[in-house]
């Protein structure tokens, strides 16, 4: 009887590849770059596909409108996260905001964070992004090493806001530890790697007979040590920062120091890799589809003048539609997370006659949506012009209640960097040969990094070089002075920072 009901329910699921009894499609579960197989399935079975990974139903959506309908409009059903026993429950002890289930604790953390993420707060961080983007240009004059330079840029902005100190070399112990912790996390989040993910009861085994629990504890300790030490340093700072602001909030009175440390620490993880990957992908577009560069430089020069004596500032960006079109096209051409970010359902739902069962993992398959030939002419080509007339944006920042909390800040971080890099440099392949892009040039993992190409940043003129050097010398770099400026800007705009 139970079996018959289950079979009837399964027959209502969206189409998908044939399944084995019990295991379903588990043996096909991709480990490294899941979007490749998922996109193949989408091409074969349509915009809504179901697969069964050992009892977990996964729904792949590769159509913008369906994703919007389900994940945005029906957000009350689609805002949970897939259960990840190893990555979320054992390694993070349920303290990772991205993986939290939408319960009262999650809402408490959202409330704690909301004031620093508001659209009104975002412009107050411009002094930090202005300074760090001037340092980025200077670093690019000295070295073409985008792996280091972009990461220093993204990390220094995040550390300044969150803890009030800067990242200067990428050789700081915090960066080494953060890299190791991220590797731990990516390893732990790989589907099919841990038996405990399919058999959650195993998590109650004592550690001495469960090696995965000892490993989880080691990973947890590494991240906790990093986050606690950063929090302590942030709290000692004389000026305002997010750590101090959160610690003074009423929501924090319901949290242990460790829970608070994890809250801030996870934000730092969310901020750095995403912005770094975006800027590397933009650079890959420059060396593979260079035709757009001169048009962008003409637009920028029209606003700031063409003699190289003035670089674009934040107020100039509103006069640069083509620069904004470049940002949008980078997200379309190759999103930082090609497989989107998974949500989960909290109850049964129906779409177009198909059952989307409670507890299903919902994957908005961004790579497939963005390479849809019926929507984009030559989708593999990088063409910012697509966005000059198009209205609105794609779903670059996710959906519904789980939409990226840091998007207003992140947009400024990437847009000022792109505008200034294009103003400053001829961005070219290091060996002069146009780079041909294919999937092998991207890493697997949650965020997919472009790799295996070399690029040169040559100042557009001697005057550009002198302007970069002058701006670097003159810009205020002292963390406490800058963060005091941020605090003042917040107060001026009517916000009420919770600490000084
Ligand atoms: C280019 C940079 C960035 C990109 C592309 C990006 C993208 C995303 C995406 C796609 C999600 C998942 C949305 C969903 O599940 O539907 C997300 C979540 C999140 N992002 Fe970002 N992000 C960026 C930068 C940042 C920054 C700078 C911060 C904070 C300072 C941040 C904080 C968060 C947080 C807290 C979440 C979790 C939201 C939740 O599950 O409730 N992100 N981001």
UniProtKB/TrEMBL annotation:
Keyword RNA-binding: no
Cofactor(s) required for function per UniProt: heme
Any Pfam family: p450
Listed InterPro entries: Cyt_P450, Cyt_P450_CS, Cyt_P450_E_grp-I, Cyt_P450_sf, Cytochrome_P450_fung
PROSITE patterns given in the database record: CYTOCHROME_P450 (PS00086)
GO molecular function: heme binding; iron ion binding; monooxygenase activity; oxidoreductase activity, acting on paired donors, with incorporation or reduction of molecular oxygen
Keyword list, A-Z: Heme, Iron, Metal-binding, Monooxygenase, Oxidoreductase
Annotated binding of heme, by residue: 404
UniProt record similarity statement: Belongs to the cytochrome P450 family.
Protein name: Cytochrome P450
Annotated source species: Periconia macrospinosa
């Amino acid at each position: 009887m139970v079996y018959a009901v289950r079979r009837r329910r399964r027959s209502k699921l969206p189409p998908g590849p044939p399944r084995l009894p019990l295991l379903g499609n588990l043996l096909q579960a991709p480990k490294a770059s899941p979007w490749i197989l998922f996109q193949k399935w989408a091409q074969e079975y349509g915009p809504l596909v179901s697969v069964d990974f050992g009892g977990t139903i996964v729904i792949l959506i590769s159509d913008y409108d369906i994703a919007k309908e389900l994940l945005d409009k029906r957000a009350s059903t689609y805002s949970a996260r897939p259960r990840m026993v190893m990555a979320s429950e054992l390694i993070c002890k349920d303290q990772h905001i991205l993986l939290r289930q939408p319960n009262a604790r999650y809402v408490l953390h959202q409330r704690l964070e909301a004031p620093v993420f508001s659209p009104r707060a975002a412009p107050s961080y411009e002094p930090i992004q202005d300074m760090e983007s001037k340092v980025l240009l200077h670093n690019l004059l000295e070295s073409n090493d985008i792996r280091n330079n972009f990461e220093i840029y993204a990390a220094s902005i995040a550390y300044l806001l969150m803890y009030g100190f800067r990242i200067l070399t990428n050789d700081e112990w915090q960066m080494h530890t953060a890299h190791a912790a991220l590797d731990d996390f990516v390893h732990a989040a790989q589907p099919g790697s841990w038996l405990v993910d399919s058999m959650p009861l195993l998590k109650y085994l004592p550690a001495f007979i469960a090696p995965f629990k000892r490993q989880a504890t080691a990973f947890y300790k590494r991240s906790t040590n990093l986050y606690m030490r950063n929090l302590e340093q942030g709290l000692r700072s004389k000026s305002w920062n997010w750590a101090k602001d959160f610690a003074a909030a009423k929501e924090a009175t319901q949290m242990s120091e460790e829970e608070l440390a994890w809250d801030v620490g996870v934000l730092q993880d969310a901020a750095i890799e995403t912005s770094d990957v975006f800027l590397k992908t933009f650079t890959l577009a420059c060396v593979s589809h260079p035709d757009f560069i001169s048009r962008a430089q003409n637009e920028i020069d029209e606003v700031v003048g063409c003699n190289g004596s003035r670089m674009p500032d934040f107020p100039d960006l509103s006069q640069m539609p083509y620069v904004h079109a470049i940002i949008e096209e980078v997200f379309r051409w190759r999103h930082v997370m090609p497989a989107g970010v998974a949500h989960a359902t909290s109850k049964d739902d129906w779409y177009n006659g198909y059952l989307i069962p409670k507890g299903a993992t919902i994957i908005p398959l961004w790579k497939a949506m963005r390479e849809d030939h019926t929507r984009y002419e030559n989708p593999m080509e990088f063409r910012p012009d697509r966005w000059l007339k198009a209205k609105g944006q794609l779903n670059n920042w996710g959906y519904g209640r789980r939409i990226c909390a840091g998007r207003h800040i992140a947009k400024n971080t990437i847009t000022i960097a792109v505008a200034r890099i294009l103003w400053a440099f001829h961005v070219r392949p290091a060996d002069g040969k146009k780079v041909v892009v294919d999937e092998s040039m991207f890493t697997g993992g949650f965020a997919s990094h472009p790799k295996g190409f070399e690029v040169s940043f040559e100042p557009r003129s001697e005057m550009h070089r002198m302007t970069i050097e002058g701006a670097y010398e003159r810009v205020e770099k002292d963390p406490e002075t800058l963060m005091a400026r941020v605090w003042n800007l917040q107060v001026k705009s009517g916000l009420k920072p919770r600490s000084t």
